[in-house]
């Protein structure tokens, strides 16, 4: 049992016997046993199977100063006092990269530390950079150990950065004191600090309440802890548990080996399949090349048909162009014919309108001539001559004369002959506007007839010197 414990926990047989003897005296638990053995281990021994631990070779003060300086510089990770008990190259590399970036943000340092050559190159690059830029000489061997000696080397860099930060803080403090002396208060910059203080106060309250609850459970926990410590140590059960754990680990190792062997067999089968697929691919490529080199039997006929198709397509394109040209010419011809027809129709309409205007002017001029003949006064001598030259006729009464005149004027003013001649000369259908103009002309002619009838009647009331002069009226009718 002593040999087993010494092999597992990495302590000497003499130390195991001593610790077991102390345990039998004080009846402590296995946890306190191992802890006491570790605490009583001399300098130069460790729990890592006899590997020399460097935590005790460096001073506690240096490690404490290093952790405090890194915290003051703003390193995001919390560095514990136990991080450098064993070599921890990953943490050392991370700290060195952060320090180099803090000193020169734009520097280019390789961060790959997976292999031994990469770690050596990384340490050399950091040492060269700090020697050239900051004039700080670093021991590369101690840095590569990644233990307490590396902390001493990194402390050189952190001391420079920490002193610079303190100097800057002192300068800022002096400036703040000067501003306070000048009674210049900047409350805007303190608002964020006030919010942070309120948040911290609420967190302190919640943490205090949770701590009070936990302390209230201390009585029960103390009893449970005392009972667990007072329980006697059973060596047989401990040995049995350890053997079971070892057996489980061995089973896991066997399973892992089986999985590795299966992976190897799977890899071999996959390699065989890949090789087979490659051979099939090569055969298919050769077959494709042979098929491409052989000319098909129908290729000549295909080329001949393709040439004929090209010729037919050229003929089709030519005919299609001719058809489009002829269609455009036909559309142009129809457009010109339509323009000519519209022009002829407009010409006929203008001629019709012009003839109607001329007829209206003639009718108006004839009516004016009749009115002028009726209104002209004649003397008695002329009347007597007219009566002598013409045979005597019976004088009709006034009413008969007026009726005859009225009938004669009405027949002449309607213009039946002119309407018939107009209908015979113009073959184009009259529009609605022409009908309206014809109605207006008829109304005007009727008004003129009424005026002509009223004129002679009013003049017939007065007795004329030469009588009614019927021959004069007949001459005027003949002239008209």
TrEMBL record:
<feature type="region of interest" description="Disordered">
    <location>
        <begin position="361"/>
        <end position="480"/>
    </location>
</feature>
<keyword id="KW-0969">Cilium</keyword>
<feature type="compositionally biased region" description="Acidic residues">
    <location>
        <begin position="417"/>
        <end position="453"/>
    </location>
</feature>
<keyword id="KW-0175">Coiled coil</keyword>
<dbReference type="GO" id="GO:0030992">
    <property type="term" value="C:intraciliary transport particle B"/>
</dbReference>
<protein>
    <submittedName>
        <fullName>Clusterin-associated protein 1 isoform X2</fullName>
    </submittedName>
</protein>
<keyword id="KW-0966">Cell projection</keyword>
<comment type="similarity">
    <text>Belongs to the CLUAP1 family.</text>
</comment>
<feature type="compositionally biased region" description="Acidic residues">
    <location>
        <begin position="370"/>
        <end position="386"/>
    </location>
</feature>
<dbReference type="InterPro" id="IPR019366">
    <property type="entry name" value="Clusterin-associated_protein-1"/>
</dbReference>
<dbReference type="GO" id="GO:0060271">
    <property type="term" value="P:cilium assembly"/>
</dbReference>
<feature type="coiled-coil region">
    <location>
        <begin position="267"/>
        <end position="361"/>
    </location>
</feature>
<dbReference type="Pfam" id="PF10234">
    <property type="entry name" value="Cluap1"/>
</dbReference>
<dbReference type="GO" id="GO:0005929">
    <property type="term" value="C:cilium"/>
</dbReference>
<keyword id="KW-0970">Cilium biogenesis/degradation</keyword>
<dbReference type="GO" id="GO:0005815">
    <property type="term" value="C:microtubule organizing center"/>
</dbReference>
